[in-house]
Amino acid sequence: MNLIPNSSIDHFDSLCQAVALAPPLGGLEADAYARGHAAFESRSNQRGLIADWLVQRLTGVASDSLAVLSVGCGDGDLDAVVAERLVADSSLKHSVRYVGVEPFEGSANRFSQRMQAIEGSEFSASVYVSPFEDAHLDETFDVVTFVHSMYYVPDVLGAVEKAARHVRDGGEVLVLSAPRGELNRLAGLLAPPMEGHDQWFSDDVHKALVDGDLAFSMPATIDAVVDLTAAEDDVLDFTVQARLTDSVRDLVRRYLADVSLIPGRSVVAHPVDVYVLSS
Fold first, then answer.
1. Where are the beta strands (DSSP E) in 61-212?
2. How far is it, in rounded angstroms, from Cα 265 to Cα 158?
3. How far is C-alpha 130 from the chain's CA centre?
4. Tens of pLDDT, residues 45-104
5. DSSP letter assigned to residue 140
6. Collapsed DSSP state (helix, strand, coil) of residue 229
7. Threshold 0.85, pTM exceeds
8. Which DSSP string do the residues of 28-79 spell out, in sequence order?
9. Is residue 178 left, alpha or beta, with left meaning phi > 0 and alpha meaning psi from -120 to 50?
10. Domains detected in the chain
């Protein structure tokens, strides 16, 4: 059964036709990506829900010194919230160390600034400015997280296997990745390939883990929404991961209005799937 309204199918078909007839769309520069990302997240309730889930998960880790590696940490907007709540939790009897890996230096610097602002004698943080596949990690962790960062790695299975090599006994690799759905089918159509591959979504993660014969569980799908009503151009560019032309951007707006959960607006489902691999 097709659950997508006919009008949204028509607009998606129109997008397909526009893309077929026009030159390929350009990608986002690192600074434009960072700005668009921050503005996009401010329109979604997903980040707060992810923070709640991560804090609950991490407080259950049995370790004398909790060490977390965040792959693709960005500017630390999520990780700083999680780290601060862990440090402030009086029930925790261990120190907290947070390490980020981020290829864009501007975002990595903001990650460091946010982490340095966290007060606590038992807290430390650092960041590697590097793609994950090139990062020379010299320590192990209780938890390695990929929160919306698996889309960009060259090799999903390779990234998971590298992460697993840096997980202590009894630790976990957590991969949070969005399904394609009505929102991300836009990126699937419009985003230019990166390093020879399209973005990997949740189904790609699932396939890589199965093909690699890795044991994993999927304990949650975090349901969220994003309000893209009258969104700025840079927010829509981030939404589809491409530099949109005016005509294509107009079709994107029409499509988002058609798949909206609230008539007359552009409030769209914004879920994320959770994969857990235990060491």
1. 65-71, 95-101, 123-128, 141-147, 167-177
2. 41
3. 17
4. 999 999 999 999 998 886 678 999 999 999 999 999 999 999 988 676 678 999 999 999
5. -
6. coil
7. yes
8. --HHHHHHHHHHHHTTBSHHHHHHHHHHHHHHT---SEEEEEEET-TTSHHH
9. beta
10. 6-278 (3.40.50.150)
